[in-house]
Amino acid sequence: MAQSIIDPSRLDRIEFSNDEIARYSRHLIMPEVTLEGQKRIKAASILCIGTGGLGSPIALYLAAAGIGRLGLVDGDTVDFSNLQRQILHGTKDVGRKKLNSARDSIREVNPNVQVDLYDTFFTAANARQIAEPYDVIIDGTDNFPTRYCSNDISVFLKKPNVYGSIFRFDGQCTVFAPHLGGPCYRCMFPEPPPPGMVPSCAEGGVLGVLPGVIGVLQAIEAIKLIVGIGESLIGRLLHFDALKLKFREFKLRRDPKCPVCSEHPTITELIDYEQFCGIPEAQAAEAQESLVPTITALQLKGKFDQGERFVLVDVREPYEYDICRIPGARLIPLGELPSRMSELDSADEIVLQCKSGMRSARALKLLQEAGFAKLWNVEGGILAWSDTVDSTVPKY
Ligand SMILES: [Zn+2]
Predict the structure, then answer these.
(1) Which residues participate in catalysis according to the annotation?
(2) What is the whole-number distance in angstroms between the Cα of residue 134 and the centre of ligand 1?
(3) Which residues pair with 246 in a beta bridge?
């Protein structure tokens, strides 16, 4: 049987009201948990980084299970596009701080839980101070700087880091805990991928139900570590394919040369994770990319109003064009542009537009290289059109 990560001396002062005994009765009657295990759950504290897709089921189920103290870190506000999967937040919460709606939802589920709110993003500047008081760190974020930061601080503080990630129909999870014999995130990925190589859920989409599966698995692993039961995912990576409905498992090994968890680590304190993940360079490159002749959505409206002659080309995908479009726009997806350039006349003035202005800037460069000269990029794309010209155009 596994050992609980909760020191037995912490259980002496844990007591339950009759309401709590009733609330947790389905735990108490299992010989693997009993009153002793429920005391461990109540004595335990968990830090959940992020209150989004993964953080929602993690926080709700851990609160329902009776975790004594739950720390939540998030600096974001609730957006309509979150509601398809982030079940901590409801329609009435759009525009509110995620932490506030998360706190309200958790109180509704179980008012016995102490909820600590950190209205910020998890960075090298605050990670140690935030993480220090907690027994388990759960990473529910989706960006590389936070992932490396949460891994490193967990290694330094010798706390298990329950990892989960999701994209489209695929998810994975494991528990990183070098102090308990397993590898850390850096044993698998010593270096981050180049920025932009791995698309985010905001770019590639995600099945709304998927974080429910992965987040619940993360919550299960945290509870097992706390109660001290079963076989932990330490040293195993579980991969879930929702389309095939298949779970696969991969063995993970510690890297004896790991920069943070090996015997002779080269990194012994938190670093600048934005820099490490190449974010500043990527932003500079992006700024360079957007240095193309630009007009605003309002100026585009003005060109229509004055009856100017020009061709508006929408370089998004057909399924995006189906959601919303600017009247009169011709659809030529960016990927098809090189082979369909002959459909355009370089004598025409051409205005290019996409969702937010990035893809159309790339399209403009392609056309420039092919000898087109009268080109404009619509800054902010159709999102800006919706914001400043026609609010009946939906944003996605
Ligand atoms: Zn390592």
Answers:
(1) 201, 354
(2) 21
(3) 241
CB atoms within 10 A of CB 129: 10
For residue 280, give both structure tokens.
């500043």
Q: How does pLDDT run along the chain (396 residues), one tens digit per residue?
A: 589 999 999 999 999 999 999 999 999 999 999 999 999 999 999 999 999 999 999 999 999 999 999 999 999 999 999 999 999 999 999 999 999 999 999 999 999 999 999 999 999 999 999 999 999 999 999 899 999 999 999 999 999 999 999 999 999 999 999 999 999 999 999 989 887 778 788 888 999 999 999 999 999 999 999 999 999 999 999 999 999 999 999 999 999 999 999 999 999 999 999 999 988 888 887 777 778 899 999 999 999 999 999 999 999 999 999 999 999 999 999 999 999 999 999 999 999 999 999 899 999 999 999 999 999 999 999 999 999 999 999 999
CA distance 156 to 265: 11
CA of 70 to the centre of ligand 1 (A): 26
Distances, alpha carbon 291 to alpha carbons 190, 359, 362, in Å: 34, 13, 10
Report strand pairing: 246-251 vs 236-241.
antiparallel
How is residue 307 written in tokens? 């009856």
CA of 4 to the centre of ligand 1 (A): 23
> Ligand 1 centroid vs 261 CA: distance in angstroms?
4
Rounded-to-integer distance, Cα 165 and Cα 175, Å: 12
- The answer regarding whether domain 8-283 maps to CATH 3.40.50.720 reads yes
CB 170 within 8 A of CB 240: yes
290-388: CATH superfamily:
Rhodanese-like domain (3.40.250.10)
* Pairing mode of beta strands 161-167, 170-176: antiparallel
Ligand 1 centroid from CA 176, angstroms:
9
- Which residues contact residue 390 at a Cβ distance below 8 angstroms, ignoring those fewer than 6 apart? none
d(CA 385, CA 200): 24
Task: Name residues whose C-beta falls within 8 Å of residue 17's C-beta, 6 or more positions apart in sequence.
Answer: none
- Residue spans per domain, the chain: 8-283, 290-388
Model-level pTM? 0.87
For residue 76, give Cα distances in angstroms to 96, 97, 122, 257.
9, 6, 12, 36
